[in-house]
């Protein structure tokens, strides 16, 4: 219910134009951050909150927020080393982050509240730069995300400012879990030398040019196609035992059996992946029968274990009016030789079946969920 409320509030604020467009597109500024911390201090004073000491740190605990002042004094001039707005803040009137960002709102709503020079989120599987503007000694404005594959875990906006003693960094961090903000953190980093700051900014500049990994289009997603059929960056249709070992190393185990046609079936297993190969009765390699990933390995559309079912479905075109059925045709027509995606659900698990018709026959991508969380993906024929 809290997430729904946050989404509705975010949409309303966006549609009613709380900010003029030119303001909306500006990077986060020091003035905004100062205004934010001042409002938190003022709120704590109005709430008559005490300053406590925890592990050599001064702390102020409020409903939906926590402050970390530099001293035990709490006044209009108090400086903060940090602050946190948590999920309870949605129940407290006026308690939001800069630009009326809200704990529990969708990560996409936060991204739309700040500039983004990188709409495809191109970068590495671990991080990407959203914007990098300015040059020292003037203020440098940075926006970046941290992620695990397609799942964003942190959105950070900060400002580097050069002073007499070195370079300071202050900013905001939005902690993200399953696509929603769980906390908004204000931080003040330790002062670093000018040389170290330049190296760090050079690293961000280099990351800004990185495009080996990107976010899949969830606005206008397309049907699964032949080019999507890979796991661990290995093409399912091209894989052979030699290619598998070249990319994955020696298997942990390997087992061969004969099927009822006399063909040899070999299953090779690695830590997070298994591949089954088919050989003819003379031992000549024919093709891969299936690939199964059950660990931190990416498959089609960068889907991996641990991802939320709705986030996975966002990477496919959904033609169904509702997903609240035991069997839902996501797109296409469920028949041999036709492209389709089918979702089945029961009390214990969910399964997504995506068929890709090829000249050589149909290939099926399967995604298995428990508790609406990916536990296994596979490609087979």
Task: Walk me through what this model shows.
The chain has 381 residues and is an alpha+beta fold. It contains seven helices and 20 strands. It has helices at residues 2-15, 21-24, 30-46, 107-111, 194-208, 241-248, 309-313, and strands spanning 52-54, 57-62, 65-69, 80-86, 127-133, 140-148, 151-163, 166-177, 180-188, 230-231, 234-235, 253-258, 264-269, 273-279, 285-293, 327-332, 340-345, 350-358, 361-370, 373-380. The strands form three sheets. It has a nine-stranded antiparallel sheet, with helices on both faces. Strands 12-13-14-15-20-19-18-17-16 form a nine-stranded antiparallel sheet, with no helix packed on it. The chain has a two-stranded antiparallel sheet with strand order 10-11. Strand 16 (327-332) and strand 17 (340-345) form a beta hairpin. The longest helix is centred in the N-terminal third of the chain and has 17 residues, at 30-46. The chain is elongated, with a radius of gyration of 25 Å.
């Amino acid at each position: 219910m809290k997430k729904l409320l946050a989404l509705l509030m975010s949409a309303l604020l966006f549609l009613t134009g709380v900010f003029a467009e030119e303001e909306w597109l500006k990077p986060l500024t020091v003035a905004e951050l100062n205004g934010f911390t001042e409002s938190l201090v003022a709120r704590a004073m109005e709430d008559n909150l005490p300053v406590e000491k925890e592990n050599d740190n001064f702390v102020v605990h409020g409903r939906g927020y926590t402050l970390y002042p530099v001293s035990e004094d709490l006044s209009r001039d108090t400086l903060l080393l940090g602050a946190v707005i948590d999920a309870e803040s949605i129940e407290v009137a006026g308690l939001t982050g800069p630009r009326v960002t809200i704990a529990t709102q969708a990560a996409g709503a936060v991204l739309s509240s700040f500039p983004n020079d990188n709409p495809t989120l191109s970068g590495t599987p671990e991080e990407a730069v959203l914007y990098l503007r300015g040059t020292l000694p003037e203020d440098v404005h940075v926006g970046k995300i941290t992620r695990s594959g397609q799942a964003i875990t942190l959105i950070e906006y900060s400002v580097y400012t050069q002073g007499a003693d070195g370079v300071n960094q202050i900013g905001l961090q939005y902690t993200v879990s399953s696509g929603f903000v769980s906390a908004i953190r204000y931080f003040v980093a330790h002062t670093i030398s000018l040389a170290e700051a330049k190296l760090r900014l050079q690293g961000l500049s280099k990351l800004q040019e990185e495009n080996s990994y990107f976010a899949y289009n969830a606005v206008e997603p397309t049907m699964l196609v032949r080019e999507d059929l890979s796991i661990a960056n290995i093409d399912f249709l091209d894989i052979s035992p030699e290619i598998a070992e070249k990319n994955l190393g020696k298997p942990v185990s390997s087992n061969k059996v004969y099927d009822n046609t006399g063909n040899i079936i070999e299953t090779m297993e690695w830590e997070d992946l298994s591949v089954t190969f088919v050989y003819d009765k003379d031992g000549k390699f024919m093709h891969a029968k299936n690939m199964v990933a059950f660990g931190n390995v990416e498959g089609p559309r960068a889907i991996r274990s641990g991802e939320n079912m709705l986030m996975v479905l966002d990477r496919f075109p959904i033609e169904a009016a509702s997903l609240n059925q035991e069997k839902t045709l996501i797109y296409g027509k469920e028949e041999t030789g036709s492209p389709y995606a089918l979702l089945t659900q029961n009390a214990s698990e969910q399964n997504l079946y995506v068929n890709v018709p090829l000249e050589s026959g149909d290939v099926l991508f399967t995604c298995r969920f428990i508790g609406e969380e990916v536990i296994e993906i596979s490609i087979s024929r």
